[in-house]
Design brief:
It contains eight helices and four strands; from the N terminus they run H-H-E-E-E-H-H-E-H-H-H-H. The chain is mostly helical. The chain has a two-stranded antiparallel ribbon.
């Protein structure tokens, strides 16, 4: 059975233990997928497969970072309360993927990439998908969460779209870094 934060307090499990089991299960699942995502061994994956694994691990890290010990957090755009593990709990980009978010700011370029981490935050499905990111409220949330200067730095980085190529060893190192933060 897959642990789910929705069973908090059931069968004598403390909320932290349930959340930890949920995160470990999904981290391992992201790194050891079969079928369309290629081989289980990370070092044998292709570059596109590694980028997908990195997104799976990175987005799980973002959702964990932006929630409390019980797995609850708030959407950065609308403030809605979200539970990790539900379909409504997503990691949304401030700088959209089409404007450099996926190649430059959407995925970390190196471990502890502050710009990428600031660019992706906990967001509800309605704001992320239906409202196209709810950009104006997202920016207000960023300014509140970080600062005006940090948000302006992120906007400037999003206006410049440098050519940045990640190599397989770099991606594997970044995957391992964020995986270690989840453990």
């Amino acid at each position: 059975m897959v642990p789910s934060p929705s069973i908090v307090g059931v069968a004598g499990h403390a909320p932290r233990i349930v959340l930890a089991r949920f995160l470990i299960y999904h981290t391992d699942k992201a790194l050891q997928v079969k079928g369309s995502r290629g081989p289980r061994n990370v070092s044998k994956k292709s570059l596109p497969q590694l980028k997908r694994v990195l997104w799976d691990v990175f987005s799980l890290y973002i959702r964990q970072r932006d929630t409390d010990e019980d797995g609850c957090g708030n959407c950065i755009s609308c403030g809605k309360t979200l539970e990790i593990g539900t379909k409504d709990c997503q990691a949304g980009h401030y700088i959209p993927k089409g404007r450099g978010g996926s190649h430059y700011l959407g995925l970390p370029r190196f471990p502890n990439d502050e710009l990428a981490e600031r660019n992706v935050n906990l967001q509800c499905a309605a704001c992320n998908l239906v409202e196209g990111g709810n950009f104006l409220n997202y920016e207000k949330g960023l300014r509140h969460k970080y600062s005006d200067e940090a948000t302006d730095e992120l906007k400037e980085a999003g206006a410049v779209n440098p050519i940045f190529k990640r190599l397989k060893p770099d991606l594997i190192e970044i995957i391992e870094h964020y995986k270690s933060l989840l453990a």
